């Protein structure tokens, strides 16, 4: 196949221009670099976030750094799908990489947690396109049955990033000074040269990608309504514990968000085929179920990926790099299951059994995590990590396959963007809600345990001894509450004095993981009872 043949436009409804396996792998290599950047930046700060928050004096504000990236990435995702349908995948992909690189550069020089969150928001505008466009391109050039084989590589990239990210983040965060600045800043600065490499590779390999232009208006009104609908709701998910879930400010956010979402639906109905998320696609059962399940699984997966590193560092006392290394069972399970499931789907054309088993693995993992406490051995925690990795390997690629399986090819960009939109929304809700639950409970539970422990004369005497008394200065307030903005004092306290703090954190995290278990259990039931046992087409 010549380049001119590969890039010739296709008539609507025609089958895709079929590339050879070698050509698909060439395209895949470029996409994997871009996707790795996007996936890595969702996970790389997880093990470094405590260090960053302590350095910038904002431990309880750390959810903003995670959710800002996810919010903008979520809102931008459907725009990328529509823009790539109109202008082609390659130019839109390059714009995403540029935005990502600029945001990364600014993050490297942030001076406060809220400034870092703002720059992460810019970074997310680019990151939102890196992952969704990669899966759209593979859907463009492969049949539904082949898709599982190639998308398995993407899930392996995502799984690798989920473990390499915390490991790399922990390694850099553990360096107090690296080339004249704090080590955690290099987490973001290293993205700049990597983005340059990704741009060079993408520019070259996507030349052979066929493109059928779709003439549509851009749905600016829908995008604006989506912002009005999502931002208030995601904000209150993060700030509800501070404002009060029933406070006037929270209620105002609920109302504004509801108005925005209603307006979005009405605008999408009026825009028809030009809509960011064409409503007619939701009449397709597999597409509808794929989006619903992506949202629910996203809540559990991203919530767990945000909370577990905090457990390893705050409760188990691990360094950032040790916490990153401790999550290696996740990547091993993810890689093994991803490759196995991709081959099985390609061979049999069936995917439901893998989808249900994958979501079931998430439920088991959440159940394991919900029993973690101060004295839990690492091998037991690793069991939960193995189930998380297996769940990612089996469920994530099959959920995307489910959503894409019956969608017309000319809508593949918008459809794949919708899948990523719902997963990112679930991830944003999971990260914000899990951290909000954690820190809304932790203060009270730590205070209660401290009050009980201070009734013991020996414990009270221990708190008055240096360096315990010095470490607790500013932590214990006059009213009996605790200041949890900076957690570095935990590393200085004697184990006896630190235990009430550790028990309070562990107890709060158990509630977080039980919440995740409930959400993923609902997803498991929906998958088992509602997803049809389809056989994928080989054309």
Describe the overall structure.
The chain has 539 residues and is mainly α. The chain contains 20 helices and no strands. It folds into 2 domains: 18-219 and 276-443 and 510-530, Growth Hormone, Chain: A (Up-down Bundle), CATH 1.20.1250.20; 220-275. Helix 2 runs parallel beside helix 7, helix 7 runs antiparallel to helix 13 (320-326) and helix 7 (144-173) runs antiparallel to helix 14. It is a multi-pass membrane protein. The chain crosses the membrane at residues 24-49, 61-80, 92-115, 121-141, 153-174, 186-206, 218-237, 243-267, 288-312, 318-341, 353-372, 378-400, 421-442, 509-529. Belongs to the major facilitator superfamily. TCR/Tet family. This is EmrB/QacA subfamily drug resistance transporter.
Helix content: over 70%
Number of strands: 0
What is the CATH C-level name of the largest domain?
Mainly Alpha
Question: What would you give as the CATH superfamily of the largest domain?
Answer: MFS general substrate transporter like domains
Largest sheet: none
Distance between the termini: 18 Å
Provide the number of structural domains.
Answer: 2
- H/E element order: HHHHHHHHHHHHHHHHHHHH
CATH topology of the largest domain: Growth Hormone, Chain: A
Q: Gyration radius, to the nearest Å?
A: 23 Å
In the predicted model, the low-confidence regions spanning at least 5 consecutive residues are 1-16
The total of helices stands at 20
The assigned CATH architecture of the largest domain is: Up-down Bundle
Beta content: under 5%
What number is the mean pLDDT?
82
- Overall body shape: globular
Q: Structural class per helix/strand content? A: mainly alpha
Domain Major facilitator superfamily (MFS) profile: 27-535
GO molecular function, one term: transmembrane transporter activity
Membrane topology: Multi-pass membrane protein
Keywords: Cell membrane, Membrane, Transmembrane, Transmembrane helix, Transport
């Amino acid at each position: 196949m010549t380049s001119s043949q590969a890039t010739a436009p296709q008539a609507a409804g025609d089958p895709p221009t079929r590339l050879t396996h070698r050509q698909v792998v060439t395209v895949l290599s470029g996409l994997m670099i871009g996707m790795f950047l996007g996936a890595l930046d969702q996970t790389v700060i997880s093990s470094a976030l405590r260090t960053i928050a302590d350095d910038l004096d904002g431990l309880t504000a750390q959810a903003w750094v995670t959710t800002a990236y996810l919010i903008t990435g979520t809102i931008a995702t459907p725009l990328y799908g529509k823009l790539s349908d109109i202008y082609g995948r390659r130019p839109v992909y390059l714009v995403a990489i540029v935005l990502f690189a600029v945001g990364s550069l600014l993050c490297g020089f942030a001076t406060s947690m809220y400034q870092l969150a703002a720059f992460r928001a810019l970074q997310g505008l680019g990151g939102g396109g890196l992952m969704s466009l990669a899966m759209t391109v593979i859907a463009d050039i492969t049949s539904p049955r082949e898709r599982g084989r190639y998308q398995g590589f993407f899930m392996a990239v995502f799984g690798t990033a989920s473990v390499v990210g915390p490991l790399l983040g922990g390694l850099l965060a553990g360096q107090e000074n690296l080339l004249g600045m704090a080590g955690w800043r290099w987490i973001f600065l290293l993205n700049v040269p990597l983005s340059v490499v990704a741009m060079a590779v993408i520019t070259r390999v996507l030349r052979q990608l066929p493109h059928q232009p779709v003439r549509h208006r851009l749905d600016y009104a829908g995008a604006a309504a989506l912002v009005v609908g999502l931002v208030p709701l995601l904000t209150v998910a993060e700030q509800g514990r501070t404002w009060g879930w029933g406070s006037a400010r929270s209620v105002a956010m609920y109302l504004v968000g509801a108005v925005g979402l209603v307006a979005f639906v009405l605008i999408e109905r009026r825009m028809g085929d030009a809509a960011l998320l064409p409503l007619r696609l939701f009449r397709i059962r597999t597409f509808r179920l794929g989006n619903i399940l992506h949202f629910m699984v996203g809540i559990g997966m991203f919530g767990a990926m945000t909370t577990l590193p905090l457990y390893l560092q705050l409760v188990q006392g691990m360094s950032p790099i040790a916490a990153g290394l401790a999550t290696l069972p996740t990547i091993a399970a993810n890689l093994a299951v991803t490759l196995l499931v991709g081959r099985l789907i390609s061979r049999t054309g069936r995917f439901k059994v893998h989808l249900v088993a994958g979501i079931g693995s998430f439920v088991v993992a959440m159940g394991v995590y919900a029993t973690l406490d101060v004295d839990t051995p690492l091998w037991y925690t690793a069991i939960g990590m193995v189930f998380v990795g297996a769940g990612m390997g089996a469920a994530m690629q099959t959920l995307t396959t489910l959503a894409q399986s019956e969608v017309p090819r000319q809508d593949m960009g918008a459809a794949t963007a919708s899948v990523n939109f719902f997963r990112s929304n679930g991830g944003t809700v999971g990260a914000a809600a899990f951290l909000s639950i954690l820190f809304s409970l932790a203060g009270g539970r730590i205070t209660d345990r401290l009050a009980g422990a201070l009734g013991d004369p020996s414990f009270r005497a221990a708190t008055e001894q240096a360096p315990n008394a010095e470490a607790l200065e500013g932590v214990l307030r006059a009213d009996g509450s605790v200041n949890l903005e900076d957690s570095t004092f935990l590393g200085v306290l004697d184990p006896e004095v630190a235990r009430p703090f550790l028990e309070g954190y562990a107890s709060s995290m158990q509630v977080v993981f039980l919440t995740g278990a409930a959400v993923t259990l609902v997803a498991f039931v929906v998958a088992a009872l509602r997803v049809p046992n389809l056989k994928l087409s080989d054309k």
